[in-house]
User: Fold these one by one.
Assistant:
Number 1:
Amino acid sequence: MKKRGIDAEIAADYVQEIYYTQKGNPYFALAFANESGGYELRNPYFKGTYGNKEMTIIKTGQGGKRSVALFEGFMDFLSACMIARRTPAMDCIILNSTAMRDRAIETIEQMGVDTVHLYLDRDKSGRQLTQDLAEQLSGLTVKDESGMYEEFKDLNEYLMDRSKTLSPAR
């Protein structure tokens, strides 16, 4: 987490360490729970899922139900928490894969929100997803928030760069 600019105390509410073996070899990874009871797993050498691939929904109970924030991955969600120094005031959906697009649209429509804030990657698939969501959710206000980190691939890269400039010289 430290290499990605995420403080342990912020990550502790959402991420745990998991230890497992594969073909007799011990491994560990960060584990981020998803809606199916599975986990999104990450370590420097592996990115995968334990159990079924699914989105994660974080209900904050704050700020009413007028808006929702949508993140492509959990590192971007945790980056938003770091930038704000708290959990976002609105409910959050973490896709955990752009393949969850249709499920996210269905969930957003069921939530009955007015505004969707998109914090998606600034690559080809993220741009396409932004366009698709704006078209599919045409009755809602869909805000592409990626201008905040326009010089970077995603919100986490922006945080890591910002952390370098804010860190004391060594």
Number 2:
Amino acid sequence: MSQVLRTLRPPRRKGLWLSLAAVLALIAASAVWLSYVRSAARFNEYPMLVKTDIPTAIDVAPNGVIWFAIEFSNAVGMFENGGIRRIRKRDPNLEVLGLAADNAGRVWVTDTTARAISRISADGEVRSFPLSTPIVRLGRLAVAPDDAVWFTDSLMASVTRLQNGVFTTYSMDQQGATPYGIALDRGGNVWTTLQGPDKLGRISKRGEVTTFDIPTRNSGLGDLTIDPSGAVWFLELRVNKVGRFAEGRFAEFEVPTHSAGLASLAAAPDGSLWFTELGAGKLGRIKNGQVSEYSLPRAGSRPFGVAVDTSNVVWYTDLSGWLGRLIVSR
């Protein structure tokens, strides 16, 4: 028996060392992988000039200026030449969800307290276009190549165009329709998310309205954008997914982090799709069908708005009082 034990002990010791070596190799590989991920993503963050400022919607102008809304203030923000500026407006901001820059580098915003759509220039000029309805609940806003401004109003269940000072309204004739996200494709069609019936809505250049059913019911549609290929991307808030609609077909991508709190999304020139995870403190990316996540550098971060510039640099707003930039090299 003792001879058998002596014979068996060396292999056991050898097996133990092999297991330990495997664990060490796994740790080393993990360290290399983490180093690789960190080197591939670089964050820069800039604090708000006023401590109580809450940045929300964001866009990149053609001239490279970063514009963003500031909640509970009477100003909008802009980032240029490495610094933040505040530009005052007449009315206080309340739930400024719609913001987009035009070809001249000016920014357009949904101005709920003034019941208007306002245009603000870098030199501080503000011009407002009052709406005719006494109560509004404005969602997202987009600017077309011809500088027509499009925006959604969930209370009126409509999508409206503002061009040359004239409003043209399109009713979304769907039961319980509450339009929210909005974007324009290269053909001049306007797309929107209809939150109540879980549909995508499309308004053609001739004003014809068509709707498309989302595969996942009760998905809670949110923001919407269109990538350079013409694919329509949208958030599905309740089911923690990002959807894609192209060539008559839907695809859905699950977000790895449970209950991420999807808030906004933006398409990059390189074809990738970026989104914010308000509840998880992360930015997400879909590229070549793969979903990746990037944790913001500060604990308690609350990323809300996101935009991507012509160099594929990602800009985001953090409700805790920061403007951020993410450069991903891979």
Number 3:
Amino acid sequence: MFKDKLWTALLRHPATGWMNPGDAALPELRPGARLLWCGTGGALLAAAALVRACGDEAAQGHWLALDSSEALPVALRPSDQVVFASRTGKTLETWTWIGRLRSLPGWDALEQPPLVITRDDGNPLAAWARAEGWRLLPIPADVGGRYAAFSPVGTLPLAWLGRDAQAFLQGGRDVAQEAPQALGHWGARIWGMVETLHEGYLAGIQEWVLLPYCRRLEPLAAWWAQLLAESLGKMARDGTRRGLTPIPAVGPMAQHALLQRWMAGPRTLGVILLTVAGAGDPERLAVPEGCPYPALAGLQGAQILQAQAEGTRETLEAAGVPVVHWELEALSERTLGELMMAWQLIVALTGFALEVDPFGQPELADGQKRTLAKLGLPGTTIS
């Protein structure tokens, strides 16, 4: 009954268009061109996560995230593809970079016009794109910023990488279809995680670490952190403050830097350990004489990484720290779509379990208004 109640509450909410994403209708992008992505928060984090997870070394060097009002040295190249991304079309950082890029000498020499990702609702960014004759890639009206991974925020970077955006979308769709009846691999994981987060919260576990043992998933942990923080840190209807605090990390660095706190500090924390089958260097090691671990000779980096992950899990469990361990079969467009849809569902359902609305972030309006006032620009919010 509890599961049915949560699922019904989710379906009744008007901000759930992300549960059934449409096919990607994307422009052709020039292979090898730099992608200058002007956006922040929900208009950036999913894109950055997918570029890091799916892009090779060359792609990483051609990806430039312009996510802060802080100036960065940017020299435009004629082949650059510029993207302006903002769900509301009013994000201060995005408009800062619009003003900055337009003043650069290479702006008028761009061979491809900028692309704009926003809601097609007449907002300032959408209106400007229309006036300039630029391609507008819409974020659906029933999709919030941090739930926008299955909009052009996620699919455009995959297309730029030459990867399969449709496989990413299909992975998400399949998970959304499995979830209501807890079917399949992901359906069971989703409800198990909702139960773990909810029961943990009632028992005082209000901090959760996402610990991927894969450096290519480090930006995904940042995406996950926003998803949890903005969705679950809310005031309930009875006036109580509720929420979970996400802690993004990456192994094995975190086991050296943070494991002591997790094991011996206050018992308010759980760890979600994420591994990828075969992650790590497949080459076999050749160690020099004098190495304190001569048995490393002949081992693969992937074997060492797996041992580190398993050792951390066993250590945490022995200390009584709640641990959930998920393993991905590979890093692919499909598995990333499955994983990201699963977490969007987990977070939304957990919000209803905690009796808060997992969509919207009303408390941010005050800070946004104060920022505008300090700039002499009083007016509407800017998220």
